[in-house]
Structure formats: structure tokens, C-alpha cells
Amino acid sequence: MDENSSARLKRRLLGIIYRIGLFLAMLTICLPGLWIVLSSLRPTVEIMAKPPVWIPQEISFDAYVAMFSGIGKGGIPVIEYFRNSLIISVTSTVIAVAIGMAGGYAFARYRFRGKSSVFLGLMLTRTVPGIALSLPLFFLYVRLGIIDTHFGLILAYVALNVPFTIWLIDGFFRQVPKDLAEAAQIDGCTRWQAFWQVEFPLAGPGIASAAIFAFLTCWNEFALASQLTRSVSAKTLPVGLLDYTAEFTIDWRGMCALAVVMIIPALTLTYIVQKHLVGGLTSGAVKG
Amino acid sequence: MKGFKPSAPFLLLLPAMIVLAAVVVVPLLLSLYSSFTPFRLTRPETFYVFIGIRNYLSILSNTDFWWAFGRTVLLLTIALNLEMLLGLGLAMLVEKATRGQRILRTLMMFPMMFSPILVGFQFKFMFNDNIGLVNNALQSLGITRDAIPWLIEGHLAFIAISIAEIWSSTAIFAILILAGLLAMPKEPIEAARVDGCTPWQTFRYVTWPFVMPFAYIAMTIRSLDVARAYDIVKIMTDGGPAGRTELLWTLVARTAYSDGRMGMANAMAYFSILLSIAFTVYFFNKLAAARTQIGAEW
């Protein structure tokens, strides 16, 4: 009897410790983000207050209004940055996915000599740190006259995304059974038709999440963008964020608001793709 | 069709090859060449002066460079190991949860959505010595009376940067290891328990070998962009105070763009590229080995 109750006590204690641990872990993960959101809604006086004001006295959207009301009031041209980010990210994503689909299909469906070294080689091009790559690109772009243009950044981002897109899409095509396409070919489809009518629709959701991942990489990229763009005509949002620090004092509230604007698309998109993303990355880890 | 088979994958891979050659390989060759010149942005004619390996020699005797190199390796070692451990812990916590697992999983991925530049900014804000959340909390709780100069003192700044880095990348490990835990068949664990294994033994000899490939995938993905830390450092301290948090990447950027010494910067950049490549090749091989170990097709 005594053993029983002490075992029960121990189990309950472990349960409580587990709950506390989980809660603390989640708190650590979420708190920094929530703090940014909260700070973007508070007046600057409260952010600067000493001793700190923990419970916000008033909530306002002033920072957002100021940010989107043009250069004069918000301090930085957020709308232009937003537009640049969107154009560059979308265009380079579309191109990278088209190239990645061809490459991924080749890896998933064909056997050829040196397959795994080609794959490794592709991945290695991705490892070159953005800042190291920016040096020669900067020099070349100046020579070619495409520095500070959308085109230049799009080109760089396509190359940045292709290796990882191939990895992901390769995984998704592997999940589609080979037999299906073969059956379609026996029924008289060409390989091209079999691809578009059988394999592509099945791998579709996966490819979409690879696209979203590529989009996010472009959306968030900083090291290359900060060196290859200089003016409002091509600067992206991450580079724009630095505008706030370049000034003599830091406008914490404005920066927080811009951070929230940047994070919302990323948040939404990641939420949509999370399931497929993990599936694509790990395919082949358990079964071929 | 059969005769053309070898050329099909080649044709399919051709666009990828062309883009990568144009944007990565050719520029890198150019930068390799310029690392043998005293090239300065302000004096274009220096691009054609060949000075052999003098840049590399002067790097070898440059203490700032070696400090930055050592600091980069230290940061990566600390960060990757802690991320792996914390990710494993987090994954196991979430896997144990009986209710609300979907929400927990989404919350767990939260930091992944933050771009490194945002992570840097967010932690710069939180670690601000005057108005930051960390100091405010410490002071309100009475743990310290004076403000701790997080980003102003060298060692503390390094710790703050490590925390930011770990916060942002633990999610990748957690999510992939969790995928491994969920994909794992339950029978071996039960069999181990019936055979009288302790929980630790079960974990060490049953769970871990199965989850390992997933951990290596996470490692490989991480090693593809270890240089993300550049963004974080750039915005948090910009290598300061007095170069105490200077990493290879910030040093390269400073040498190239602030000092305008492109040739020298390219020589330094090659060290950082080699570092990245070494990481990737190492984990890629580990990944391949782990995959064959559990009989997967590659």
C-alpha cells in the first residue's frame, strides 16, 4: 500500500514538473515575439520609462499609421521597401521553383553516374556565405550596371534558392510512387504528359511549400541585399529595418512596428506549409 | 528513348547548373583571382596587379583575423551543440504532450519564421541595458540593482549573441527530431521496456539511433546557412565593442566595404567559405552514413 501511494505521488510530481518545463519552454519561445508586438502598440514614453511600466496604459496604432503615411511622417519609405520586397521575392521564387522542379525530378526519377556528388556539389554552392558571395557580385554588378536593380537581386536570389528547392522537391517526387507514372505511360501517355497529369498534381502541395520556403528565404535575406542595393528603388524590407538604427537615436517603436509588418506574411505562410515542409525534408530518412 | 537516357537528367539539371555557374561559381573564381591582387574599390587599376599570396600571408599574421576566426568557430560549436540538445529536449517535451500537440508544434516553429535580421533586432531591444526587457525584469525582481551592460561588455555581448542565435535555430532541430520521434514505430520501445531496460537505456539504444538521421538532416540544413549569424551580429553589436564580437563574416564585410580593401577581403572570405564547406561536407557524410545504417535508399 505504502509503495503504491508513494509511486502515485512520484508520478504526479513528475507530471507537474513536466507541465512547468513545457510551459517555461513555450514561454521562452514566444515571449520575444510578443514583446515586439506589445512594444509596437505602446507610446514611446512607456517604452523608455524608468522604472519600467509593465502593464500598458494605452494601446494605439500610431506607429503603423505613421509608417504607412509616407516618407515625411514615418521617417522611412516603408511602402516602397514593401513593394521591392514583394516583386523581388515573388519573381525569384517562381523562377527558382521552375528550375528546382526540373532538377528535383532528375534526382528523384533517374539514376546517373556521380548522382550523390552532383547533389553535394549543388548543396555546396548554397553554403557560400552571403557576405562572401556579395564581394564578387558587387564588383560584377557595378561593371554590368545592374547594381541596385530588381533584376540583380532576383538573379542572386534564384541562385540562392535553387539548391534547397531541388532538395525539397526531390523529396516530394520520391513520395509519389513510380508505378503511377509508369502505368500512365503504358496507357499511352508520353513521359511529359505523365509528369504533368499524374506526378505533378500529386507532388503539388509539396512543391507549393517548397515555393513558400523559397519565398521566405528571399523575404528575409539580408547579407546580399544590404550590399547589392542602396536606394529606395531596390532596397528590401530587411535592409530598410536598418534605416531606423542609422539615425542618431533608435526609434524603438517604429522598428517594432516594421518588424511586425515583416513577420506577418512569414507567419501566415509558414503556418500553411509546416506539415509539408517537414515531410519533404525528412523523406528518405526512414524509407527510400 | 533508351539511347538518350543518360542525357535526360543532364538536360533537366542544366538550368540549375547555368544559374549557379553564373551567380556563384564564376563570381567565386573572380574573387579567387582578386584575392591575389591588392585590389581596392577606390583604385580600379590595382585589379590588374598580381601580388601572389601576399594577402594570405598578411592574414596569417593578422591577430584580429585569427581572433575573429576563433570566435566564429567557438560560436558555432556552442550554438550548434546547445541547439541540438535543446531541440531534442523540446521535441521530447512536445511528443509527450497528450493534448494540444498541434498548437504546441506551431508554437515551437515560431522562431523559424523570424528572419535573422529580425532576431538580431529583437534581442538588441531585449538586451538593451537601459530599456531592455531582460534588465527591466532582473531589476524589478530585485536580482540586480545596476543595469547589466549586455551589449556593451565584450563577454556579455558574446553571450547575448549566442542566446539570440540559439533561440532562432533550435526550432529547426526540434521540428525535425520531433518528426523522427513521431515516425518511430512503438514496438521496439515496448519490447525494450518488457526486457527490463531503464528509461535511459531505452532512449540511448532504441530511440536515439532511430532519431539520429533526423538530427543530421537538421545539422546539414543548419550548416547550409551558418552565416546567418552575420545578420544577427551586424545588427546587435556590429562587431563591437572594440571588435570583441567580430566574427569572420563581419570582418570580411568591414574590410571590403568600409575599408574598401576588396583583395584582402576576398582572401578572408575564402577562409569563411572553406569553414562553411567543411561543416557541410562533414554533416552530409554523417547523414549519408546514418541513412545507410537504417537501410534507407539514397
TrEMBL record, chain A:
Question: Keyword annotations for this protein?
Answer: Cell membrane, Membrane, Transmembrane, Transmembrane helix, Transport
The keyword ATP-binding appears for this protein: no
Query: What is the protein name for this chain?
Result: Binding-protein-dependent transport systems inner membrane component
Instruction: Give the species this sequence originates from.
Output: Mesorhizobium ciceri biovar biserrulae (strain HAMBI 2942 / LMG 23838 / WSM1271)
Provide the membrane topology annotation.
Answer: Multi-pass membrane protein
Task: List the transmembrane segments.
Answer: 16-38, 86-107, 119-142, 154-173, 194-216, 252-273
**Which InterPro entries does the record associate with it?**
BP-dep_ABC_trans_perm (IPR050901), MetI-like (IPR000515), MetI-like_sf (IPR035906)
Gene3D superfamilies in the record, alphabetically? MetI-like
From TrEMBL, chain B:
Task: Indicate how the chain sits in the lipid bilayer.
Answer: Multi-pass membrane protein
List the subcellular locations.
Cell membrane
Predominant location: membrane
Q: Name one GO biological process term.
A: transmembrane transport
Kindly indicate whether the keyword Transport belongs to this entry. yes
- CDD domains under this entry? TM_PBP2
Q: Does the keyword Transport apply?
A: yes
Domain ABC transmembrane type-1, which positions? 69-283
Q: Which residues cross the membrane?
A: 12-34, 46-67, 73-94, 106-127, 156-184, 205-224, 267-284
Q: One GO CC term of this entry?
A: plasma membrane
The record's InterPro entries line, in alphabetical order, gives: MetI-like (IPR000515), MetI-like_sf (IPR035906)
Keyword set, alphabetical order: Cell membrane, Membrane, Transmembrane, Transmembrane helix, Transport
What protein family does this chain belong to? Belongs to the binding-protein-dependent transport system permease family.
PANTHER family from the entry? BLR7065 PROTEIN, SPERMIDINE_PUTRESCINE TRANSPORT SYSTEM PERMEASE PROTEIN
Provide the protein name.
Binding-protein-dependent transport systems inner membrane component
